What we know:
Shape: globular
Structural class: alpha+beta
Order of helices and strands: HEEEHEEHEEEEHHHH
Distance between the termini: 42 Å
Radius of gyration: 21 Å
Strand order of the largest sheet: 4-5-1-6
Number of strands: 9
Amino acid sequence: NSTVEAAETIHTTTIPMGLAVLARFQYLLGLTYTDDRPDFGTGTDDMEGAYRQIPVHPSHECLAIAAVCNVHTNEWVFFAMQGLPFGLGAAVNQFNRLPAFLVAVARRILGLPVISFFDDFKTTDIINLCESCPPFAELCAILGVRLDEMKHQSVSLDTAFLGGRETINHPYVDAVLIRPKEGREDSIMLLINETIRTGMCLPSDAQSLRGKLVHLADSYVGRVGRACTLGLQELISQSTSKCSDSTIETFMFIKEII
């Protein structure tokens, strides 16, 4: 509609943004590295069936129809989709307006330090404070947004977010230890090795890989690896899955970094 375009830029967050929130907390409280400080931690929430929580406008219901072949009767059957279809050209942009709204309300009205990456939310707070009724979860409940209880991570010193694992207040130094989430590098390597072997990679897979590498770089010294993601742009923008020699070299370079 008139409020969203398929080509518009989506502003999301990164792991360092959450760490900036934590540092800001300490600055506003006037805390130094030698002070006794409250145990700040982070917790995460994930929307349940995120896209299906976005209703279809009544005038568009006639267009939100999906077809499935019944293998038993060899007939096509149709059903109405009760939520935002993921495959629409502007579906991601449409959906992202909801988490952006939730974060804006949480920050500006309630003063909650919440960041989001699409349907993933991370809150910085003091451990064990209001854990029985987390403020962000209460806000979502009031607005009718369902959160996935199975994916909820209570505020703690060790949290997984955006493919990384953050450990706050490392026992040896006053810092935050960031490392890749368990199995993250292995899953990325599977795609890289298969692409090098076959010389083929779907543009959608290349786009997904670029996003994963950006977040993975946040857990590497000097954020090494971000620059080489530019080499994937050629594959993302083309209509074929065949990789050029320069693209294969990019994949080999990324493999060596990991």
